[in-house]
Amino acid sequence: MVVVGFSVGHHKGAALVIDGELVVAITEERLTRLKGDGAYQTDMPIHSIDYCLSSQNLRYEDVDLFVYNTVENDKVLEQFISKIGLDEERLVFVPHHMAHAYSSFYSSDFDEAAVVVADAMGSVLVAGSPMERWAIENGYDIPDTSEEDFDYAEGASIFHFTKNGVEEVWKKWVKYPFVWGPDNEFSIGTMYGEGALQLIYDEKSNNWQAGKLMGIASYADKSFVDSTPEVTRYSEDNFHIPLDRIRPDIHYKSDFSARANIAGLYQREQENASLHLCNIAKNITKSKNLCVAGGSFLNCNTNERIILSKNFKGTYFIPPADDSGIPLGCAWYGYIEVLKGVRKEKKLLNPYTGIPYSNQDVLNAIDYIDSLTPFRDKIEVYHIEDETELIGITANYLNDNKVIGWYQGGSELGPRALGNRSILATPKHSWMTEYINNDIKRREWYRPFAPSVLYEKQSQVFNLNTYSPYMLVTTTVKKKWKDLIPAVVHIDGTSRYQSVTEENNPRYYKLIKQFENVSGLPLVLNTSFNGKDEPIVETPLDAINSFWKNNLFALIINDIIIKRR
Which of 149, 191, 378, 409 gives 20 to 30 Å between its CA and that of 60? Predict the structure, then answer.
């Protein structure tokens, strides 16, 4: 059975499941090179669908089922008929939070788990919308808005997955469009997003990425945060986040310390509300395992709090927790729920879901650039077939304080670079953070960098020893290591680490191991392979362009080293 899942909206994309196994998945922005592609239009992600199918030499008519989610507007059916050319019986809608839940549970290795979904907003109950039709067809309990001048949207959801199927056991609806005032309420994700808009808005790019708020929050005065009363109201089985901004007199034009303090309050509210939501899930489901999804759970400090709470024996944090994971959930929903298929094997998601490119693709990309402008005379190209030699050269570059592009195999799914589309550097100099932020990434000075660490050595360096292959958990760095790896230690003494093993990424593991041999450090600085306002690179052509534009010393792509003359 062949199922394509796809999403319409920001970070739209597609995923392909064949006979109970995820085969390939991609986000549209990686192919169109438009960061966040889909935020302002409702077209199907045709590039992503074609990418997935062509990787397996499949045609549209070879697909048994197409499953999609769109949050609000719905032009999918007419586009499906006109662009895909199939009848509507092969097209199925799934609610946003349901798709998030399926993406996380079927990427874990659990037989049973509570699944918590929290984001800015899920599917909207607009009259005649796909969500309303789905709810009616499935006997879903939804709010009555017939006499209201607003609609409702999914705010947070809790599901319980067992061997007998899935049950949604708890739901919070929020008014849509938002009705401001303390008696109305935010979702967790919208509260945090409004905090980002308030405090780190960039007028030039019209951007307010939530990740920036998490970075600046670490600079908050702890005594100020601890002494300021919480705004979220809690009960045993619910919570209420008033739909008002925290200290609206402080905004993105205010001084840094003032913004950092208010960011610290937003971060505290986000962590506490998310933890309370997980506690509700525990009380309702009595499950020993927890999976999470939704953009709120890209917040690594929150994820650490969940682990340290010890409410669950097993926890799973999915790398595409944001909407880039929706296609994955759509595909699994179609395969399991609609077609009644069986998952081939219960194992952790391999995040490297992109297609690999050949050495010939690399050489073709160089030739293409050279045909447009003289390029070959500016670079040196070495093809090194011996892996040990290749890794040795690369480790020496890093130890010599060079910043490089590292491009191997298929690209990662989600917003974190995990060693296949990464910019790497040594962590041993504090100036490296400023250099990469200012001269390469061209981003805010206060944003931290993460380490990729040998899994068997991480307990020596960090106070949390949780296996974290997706770079989704924060922990404090042990005192004796802070001065050894300052480039990956944030202002609050923490790191968002990635656990690397010989099984989860063999070549990357060998590189870090060799870097340890020459430097004495069992970790490297790892950040996403992209420059300012561009998505993470996908093709060799993207990588070479980014390498050149962003002033990297060298690019190691498959078995080929490209270095500036």
Answer: 409
Q: Which residue has the tokens 């693709």?
A: 361
Cβ atoms of residues 45 and 13 within 8 Å: yes
**Quick one: pLDDT band at residue 40, thresholds 50, 70, 90?**
low
Question: Positive or negative CA dihedral for 285, 290, 294, 297?
Answer: positive
Q: List pLDDT tens digits, range 361-410.
A: 999 999 999 999 999 999 999 999 999 999 999 999 999 999 999 999 99
Task: Give the integer Cα–Cα distance in Å for 309 and 9.
Answer: 34
**CA–CA distance, 373 with 494 (Å, rounded to integer):** 44
Strands 314-317, 181-186: pairing is unpaired
**DSSP label at 400?**
T
Residue at 559: amino acid letter: D
Assign residue 241 a region: left if phi > 0, alpha if psi is -120 to 50, beta otherwise?
Answer: beta
Rounded Cα gap, residues 561 and 423, in angstroms: 14
Q: What is the predicted pLDDT for the residue at 183?
A: 84
**Pairing mode, if any, of strands 238-243 and 554-557?**
unpaired
Task: Report how far residue 134's alpha carbon sits from residue 532's, in angstroms, rounded to the nearest whole number.
Answer: 40
- The answer to whether 413 and 324 have CB atoms below 8 angstroms apart is yes
CA dihedral 122, 125, 126, 129 (to 10 degrees): 80
One-letter amino acid at 158 equals I
For 156: left if phi > 0, alpha if psi spans -120 to 50, otherwise beta; the answer is beta
Mean pLDDT of the chain: 95
Q: With pLDDT > 70 as the criterion, what percentage of the chain qualifies?
A: 99
**472-522 pLDDT, tens digit each:** 999 999 999 999 999 999 999 999 999 999 999 999 999 999 999 999 999
Cβ contacts of 272 within 8 Å, gap of 6 or more: 230, 232
Using CA atoms, how far apart are residues 251 and 196, in angstroms rounded to an integer? Answer: 9
Residue 287 reports pLDDT greater than 80: yes
Total Cβ atoms within 10 A of residue 480: 9
